[in-house]
Design goal:
- By secondary structure, this protein is α+β, with helices and mostly antiparallel strands.
- It folds into 2 domains: about 1-35, no CATH class; about 40-180, tt1808, chain A.
- The chain has helices spanning about 10-20, 40-60, 115-125; strands at about 25-30, 30-35, 65, 70-75, 80, 85-90, 100, 105-110, 135-140, 145-150, 155-160, 165-170, 175-180.
- Strands 3-6-8-9-10-11 form a 6-stranded mixed β-sheet, sandwiched between helices. A 5-stranded mixed β-sheet has the order 2-1-5-4-7, with helices on one face.
- Strand 10 (about 145-150) and strand 11 (about 155-160) form a beta hairpin.
- The radius of gyration is 16 Å and the shape is globular.
- The relative contact order is 0.13.
Length: about 180
Amino acid sequence: MQVENKDKIYTVEEYVEHELKSAVRSEFVNGQLFEMAGEKDINNEIAGCLYVLLTTLLKSFGYFVYNHDVKVKVFGENKYYYPDVFVTKEAKTDINKYIKSEPILIIEVVSETTHVTDYVDKYIAYTKIPSLLYYLIIEPETTLITRYKKDNNEWSTSKFTNLDDVIKLDAINNFSFQLKHVYS
């Protein structure tokens, strides 16, 4: 949903300032702000579960895990998104405390309003990020996780539908998890 002042084209600086003052988060696409709708409890539970799992298993290896309130900049484009969860090894600085640009894993939990955006628009945008190795899209209402994996600069797709399926993210410290850890 586009914000009220739909004719205004924002600079990145205005966007960051707007986000610091606004009670509602907005994503930034080519100068326009798009308000983010609230999410269902199941979406929040899945994202929270993955945040805890990833943080618990990866933090000691120098990874940082963020959820919901830190933005990712799309490489070479004027787009900034709030992934549900993402992982990076990007060092923390005063310059990047609100916006990261080197995620290695991005996870989106889809909803009725974000389905097309997550599978099409964000897939196209995220796969332009040089550091990104994995993009996971999780369907909360049914058991389905789509894993996009970059290998030799080519993206492949795998779908997981069984609670005993194991999703391997080998490039991230050989991290893996079963779907039942997400859908419990």
